[in-house]
Amino acid sequence: MKIVDFGTLPLARTHEAHTGSSPITAMAQSPTVSIPSAAHDALEKKRVAFSDYLVDALSAMNNQQLDVTRLERQLITEPDSVDIQDVTIAMAKARMSLNLAQTVLDRIVSGWNELSTTR
Q: Which of 12, 41, 48, 101 has its CA 20 to 30 A from that of 85?
């Protein structure tokens, strides 16, 4: 299927600003949104330190690795109690999380090295 002209396509526009009829306003003139104090307090409570976030992510990755080990043992000792598909899916998830963790840690180390050499 080939689109002849972009201007001939019917577009569903739901907001007045999307049609282009309203003037473009500068960012300084646009109204600011204030967060109520209860929402602000809730946001403050949800803030997590970066180190805590990394520790939680690494522990989740470790749990996935341990689940694979448990499923492998169960497959060897009781082959009828577990499907091979479940083991394969768990192994793929664990491998992907390990690769992601390795990539993130490599980026953190390279970023730290870059910061320390520029000073």
A: 101
